[in-house]
């Protein structure tokens, strides 16, 4: 199973990812299940490729191997936006590396075929779909994105059992959290003033709601919705639902 968290910046995805991992380590049978995080996937990359240069070359070869019309269409969509060159480059790298994570996921799953692998991602292909549509485009572009992702044979996204965890919040609370957290706001937001950051966050919320509506009401995928408007001392009631869907 692949568990993907979805939420706007400042919603608490990383915090809840780590909390869920701690909960499941205590609650599930380690002889039957193996938990793998995005950090584990990154570590797997480092083991596979000793040098950074070799890693980039290997990633390029893998990308060429899995390349198809669906990936090309999505890459072109990023390049054809009105975003700055910096944003286009960032989104291209973000999308490609997320794709390649699923190549590692398939590798880990094959190496542990005797166990139920549970991959817990604070950011996955569902989360980054925001790159490919605006809040004005509606459900049509989201459906098109997931159709293409599911059709990429090289990453086998369609073949994985998936659970989507939505992290609800408010613009005001998420803004407050980002302003107080150690890493601050996303790098691409650094030069924006407070009003511009707030407006951008509102756009993210609208996109998030569109994704949530599509996945829960149209695609009817397994999902859990966490109200994280205020941080809770205990999320066990939500995590129990996740455990029941494994």
Automatic annotation (TrEMBL):
Q: Which domain of life is it from?
A: Bacteria
| Record's protein name | Uncharacterized protein
